[in-house]
Amino acid sequence: MSKLETVLDWKEKGNAKLKDEDKEGALECYSEGLSIGWKAIDVFRGLSEDFEPLKVAVAQICTNRAHVRLLLDQAELALEDCKKALEVDFQNAKAYWRGTVAALRLPETHEGRRQAAELLRQGLRMAYDGGQALPNLLKEHVTTFCSWADEGHLPSVYLVALAYLKGNGVAKDNDKALAMFQYASSRGDSLAKAMAEQLEAQKAEKLPPELELWATEAANGDTTAQFNLGLAYYRGDLVQQDLSKCEQLWERAAEQGDDMARENLATLREHMKL
Fold it and tell me: The whole model's pTM is what?
């Protein structure tokens, strides 16, 4: 049995224990699988296509153990499990969701509680298979993030701005969203800067209705929208051709793991050199 198969076997044993409501037993199984998995990652030598499944499996067990720890009211340990999961799989939606929940369950005075804001905003950017779970988490806790934003906590300012942009838990207000992104940007927040620049460009350049949705979603970090809007600028479809804007959009998508954007970006840059 390979290391990956062994790790997955412990995962299934843990799942079975949890199904039988044996939380402590599940915790032991997941911990055993993680002990083997982390060691396998540390010593791995081989092809990347063999490495990725191992990392994904380890991340899944981390989030499963985090789930059990949340059930056992071990929020701090659950938070650490989620952060470890994201070290090897930055697109794991459950790690962002459970990590945010775990951080929010920490005492008000705990220094790790505000990590919830950064975990949630990264999850909203990176984990597109998370469905509505992450946006709903923002909606549910928007009051908390508003209070942190009022104190100048930049990840929270970003989240509240995003809530205004989407009308998620607050009344939709694009101007207020832009002002908040600009505030965070002026204080050195790079993610807020990217959002502010995108929204400013949208205000300056009125896009056709067919592209407005892509522009909004692209500003929110959606890689599909970033690629599609970039393609429109590349082809000059409904907008004036602008290879620089195309490059910027595809670069942002590629940075978030979009393979098609990465491949086309390389070709575009070769073309721009000519």
Answer: 0.77
